[in-house]
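re: ur msg from earlier - yeah i can do the 2-acetamido-2-deoxy-beta-D-glucopyranose complex, just paste it... oh wait u already did. ok heres what im feeding in:
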Amino acid sequence: MQMTTFVNLALGLLSCAAASPLEPRSTTFTHRAETSEVKATGGTYEDFKPGYLAGTWEVFKRGEYVDLEGTGYIRVRWEIEYWKGVGPMYEPTFDGISGTFLFVAGGGGYQITDTPQGCPQGTGCKNFTGSNEYGYTYPVDGYNPWHNMYYYLDGKVTITNHEAGGLYNVGVQAYSYDNILSDINTAPASSGNLIKYGYSYDPKEGSCPCSS
Ligand SMILES: *[C@@H]1O[C@H](CO)[C@@H](O)[C@H](O)[C@H]1NC(C)=O
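and the outut:
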């Protein structure tokens, strides 16, 4: 085994296991087939409207869901809605999977536990899960989503919101490999929410699938 293969394999194993300290990406990002843009085939989601969180299918409230089908990538854009309710964060489920469904990359400049460069709401905030004014939402299982969570689908999946206490929104849309690559390689900035580079969890030589 070549050294580069070994290093990528080790990174792949690490990134499957858990979020590790993150650096500018040193892994590759596998390009999987994008032969049939992901579409919604059902659900109780809301359609995008100006002013909404970015996304085609808005899964805003507890019990709302979207059924997806296709062969390509999707973006799940996160927003912790702490100004409306804080408490335990019961994350969305991805079920009814047939075929392949993989978490492949994180981007958008931050994960929810990062320290913001200025607070979007309230008088002060230590991270993206709340503010000193409203209180803080806490993941029940150490889940730490990126602002943009990227998944690869070749088949079907249903995404359901389970918020209760700690409120959040997710905006879901079809996305391309090229646009994910550009997101995860976007350089951090000294103001705004671009705090760190994104990360590939789908290195070619890795031991993924990381679907569970
Ligand atoms: C966010 O910051 C608050 C206040 O310091 C802290 O209690 C909470 O654990 C942090 N949340 C996460 C998910 O790190």
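cool cool. The helical segments are 3-17, 177-184. ping me if u need the other ligands too
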